[in-house]
Amino acid sequence: MTTAASSQARSYDCAHCGLPVAAPPSVSDAPPRDSPGSVPVFCCHACRMAFLIIGNQEQGEHAANLLRLGLGALLAMNVMMISLLLYAGSVEVHTVPLFRLILLALAAPALAILIPPLLSGALRELAERRMSLDLLIALGSLSAFSLSAVNALRGTGEVYFDTATMLPVLVTVGKLIEASAKRRATDLLHALEALMPKTALLVTPAGNEEVAPDSLRPGNLVRVRPGERIAVDGRILEGTSCIEEAAFSGEFLPRLCAPGDDVVAGTVNGTGPLLVLAVRTGPRLLLHGIAEMVQQAWRNPSRSQLIADRAASMFLSLVLFLASGTLLCWSLYGDTGQALLSALSVLVVACPCTMGIATPLATSLAIARAARAGIVVRGGSAMEGIAGTDTLFFDKTGTVTSGFLALQKIELLDPHLTEEELLGRLAALESASEHPLGRAVMEKANQAGVQLGRAERVEVLPGSGISGVVTWKGVATEVRAGSSGFLEGEGATESPDGHGSAVHVAWDGRLRGRLSFGDTIRPEAPRCIASLRKQGLECVLLSGDRLAAAEAVAGEIGIGRVEAPRTPAQKLESVTRAMASGRRVAMVGDGVNDAPALAAAQTGVALGGGMELARQAGNVVILSGRLSQLPWLITLSQRTACIIRGNFAWSIAYNSVALAAAAAGLLHPLLAALAMAASSLTVLGNSLRIARFPDDPLSGS
Amino acid sequence: METITHHIRIGFAGGLIACVHCMGMCGGFVLHLSRDKTRHAMLTSQLLWHTGKLFSYLLLGACAGFTGGYFQLFFLRHGMWQNILSYFSGAVMLLMGLSLAGLLPVHRKGEGVVEWMLASFGGRLFSTHSPGAALLLGIVTGFLPCPIILAFIAYSLQTGSVPGGMATMVSLGLGTSLPLVVLGGAARMTRWHLRRWAPKAAGAILILLAATTTLRGTSIYHKLIGCPPKPVLHLSDRGDTPCHARTANDDSGK
């Protein structure tokens, strides 16, 4: 995407439905949206009409348009009723001419009210170089009226006042329905932004002050009362509470948070009051970040959206051609009235809705739906690509494992030694180190309640070990701890079985113990892999770790194929090789050391992390970092693809039957309008099902 | 003309008896419209709302009558069983009654697409206070797929005539409007809409509706008012007219 194109595309959203719209030529030089005096831009005729009639806020113009439509509809309904009475022969024969004049008197104002907005809107669409059949429908309606008016005044021939007046009403209603459906995607997104509280309690030296969340700045202290929504992304300084993040991460169970834990704006505080230090505020909030990324994703049309767009314009040309053919054939046949009605039927019955609206709507809704579960999908093609995935590569550390080392096993190599003494001496030594293994030892010692010794003259040799004099229960010895290489002199050997790292401990020249550390497996990983395999997907573990370690993890979570050890470059090679052999590959990683592979795969899923990571890595970001959302996302994407295919199939079947019937003169224009509305409702309703896609049933457990 | 009077009587009685259901379904609209600031504005919007609803019913009745007539002619021409339409209408009415009484085994999950579309459109109309909005809201309300309306459309269908269908539906509309007009006036006079207990009152009306709806689904209720358990499809001139009216409505549960 070029910068110029993207910056131009970024400037326009439809004023009614909020979906992105390519800048029309007439406004391309106009200032971008939100600037004063900007002209509203619309994505289609439906949104333009809906904006004029219903609008977003109460305005005099809207009120007038509403009254216009109401009166027009009322008149048209009366015309229809009287016409039905005439058709059914329910009036005396000698009064028929009178009734026809009454029809004329009712239809004339009805058309005067209904046609102008339809015409002017359609003309604007044409001026913006978008093809629309509405202009022809409006003209058809007018010609039906003129023909009927002449016949009514002459007292002979057919009258079509009902068609002429009801058609604009039905077309307008159809447009309103379309426009309402389109708004659904942005409604879903706004529901996310509506999670922001209206006010926040700012803590100042002078006391507490109720302020708007927008006025908060990073570094502010915010008091969050029980039951209140949190207004900032920040860290808890005081208080313990359960925080509900369901709307964000799809996780139903509240999370227990204590001082030092991070919280996200828009989540609900449970029972305890909290004092939160703001880290991100205003537009930099994660909440707004998600919304912004979804809007950007909407501007990345998918392949099927592009196909749908092209099909829609071809389809409109076809309909135009068919309508003129129908008009010509029936006129040559000598039936002007039927020619007009049939051509009108063709124009009215054609339903380009699937191509023009339903497909983009399905994709946009799916992206918004995923965002509601805390998954950012960056573009329609990414959304559709997930459905076709057949092979998943998983990174090990930080992806299927938590990425935090824990002390898993302590082996005592000296029969007179107690575990307490070993931990007490080692932890004392490690308290001087910042090494992750050292922290794991400290954590274990704290958990076990071991009394720590006192360490002096501590020396750290990066990459190999640590040594120092430790006094424990009055006995001072020089303790050395580290890798087998570091303690080779004391007889340390490589641990034969462990899949993590091992630390040997020795003092007084003798090996005293061996501690094995391992990465803890994410609790949801086995279930995620099981459910992916149930969907028939192949899972592969790619790890930078030793083969034995990787195989141990793979065995535990149920992955059959392991490739290890792999450098980032080799990971990239594995992914590209799989893609070259025709597989549809998704790479799942934490986005830090597997960025090249994430970028190369058709779908790169980055787990966890903040917005910064999301902007860079992968085209899918699972913000909650929970693997269990992966099968859910794949199902959502498959459902979307299925709905799009269903819509296309329906559209082809409906349009071929309906257009043929209309051209053959078997379909009255009003029935055609109803058929078209029913078809629109079918495909739009089908697409809207995505908005109600259920949450992951496993996420709560 | 006699038959027209007959249809009018049935429709009006149906509307009156259906008032509890209507209050539950459309009472909200009326209370909303009675919130208008001045007495004049309130009267205008109420009037426009009822007009819109009435004309929607009229159009529905005309269309149903026309379609019914078309099919009657079609059946007659093809020597088919003429009563087929009556039985079809009876079945629809029964189905609507059962659906209102909650006796249908099929339960729909969530909102339907049609309801959602109407709601999203109507919701926007709610936020504007203009005569046009009230009129359009009325017209849209008329097309809400309410079981009572569907049952009476089925009735109009089997009248087989446009005037017959229109007469049935317009009198049904008037019948249902009367209690609603009273509700609107009462709301205005008692300033219900300003009271805290207004939502509770609406809830009570709904519970009442639920109770009557459930009660009407039981055979005891039918025995109580002396109706046969199955709807009478055969129309006679006098005698069982009120019973027929009741059957149509009772089955639809109000």
Summarize the structure.
Chain A is of the alpha+beta class. Helices cover 50% and strands 17% of the residues of chain A. Chain A has a seven-stranded mixed sheet with strand order 10-22-21-20-11-18-19, with helices on both faces. Chain A has a six-stranded antiparallel sheet with strand order 2-1-3-9-4-7, with no helix packed on it.
Largest sheet of chain A: 7 strands, mixed
Q: How many β strands of chain B by DSSP?
A: 0
Radius of gyration of chain B: 19 Å
> Class by helix and strand content of chain A?
alpha+beta
Number of helices of chain A: 22
Overall mean pLDDT of chain B stands at 68
Contiguous runs where pLDDT drops below 50 for at least 5 residues of chain B: 224-254
The overall average pLDDT of chain A, rounded, is 81
The radius of gyration over CA of chain A amounts to 35 Å
First CA to last CA of chain B: what distance? 28 Å
How much of the polypeptide of chain A forms β-strand, as a percent range?
Answer: 15-25%
Give the quaternary arrangement of the chains: heterodimer
> What percentage of the residues of chain B does DSSP assign to strands (E)?
under 5%
Number of strands of chain A: 22
Give the CA-based shape of chain A: elongated
Written overview of the protein:
By secondary structure, chain A is of the alpha+beta class. Chain A has six domains: 3-41, no CATH class; 42-195; 200-281, Calcium-transporting ATPase, cytoplasmic transduction domain A; 285-373 and 640-701, no CATH class; 374-401 and 522-633, HAD superfamily/HAD-like (Rossmann fold, 3-Layer(aba) Sandwich); 403-520, Calcium-transporting ATPase, cytoplasmic domain N. Chain A has 22 helices and 22 strands. In chain A, the strands form four sheets. In chain A, strands 10-22-21-20-11-18-19 form a seven-stranded mixed β-sheet, with helices on both faces. In chain A, helix 20 (611-616) links the parallel strand 21 (603-607) and strand 22. Chain B is an all-alpha fold and 254 residues long. Chain B has one domain (2-252). Chain B is built from eleven helices and no strands. In chain B, helix 1 runs parallel beside helix 11 and helix 7 (147-159) packs antiparallel against helix 8. The model of chain B is unreliable at 224-254 (pLDDT under 50). Chains A and B meet through helix 3, helix 6 and helix 22 of A and helix 3, helix 5, helix 6 and helix 8 of B.
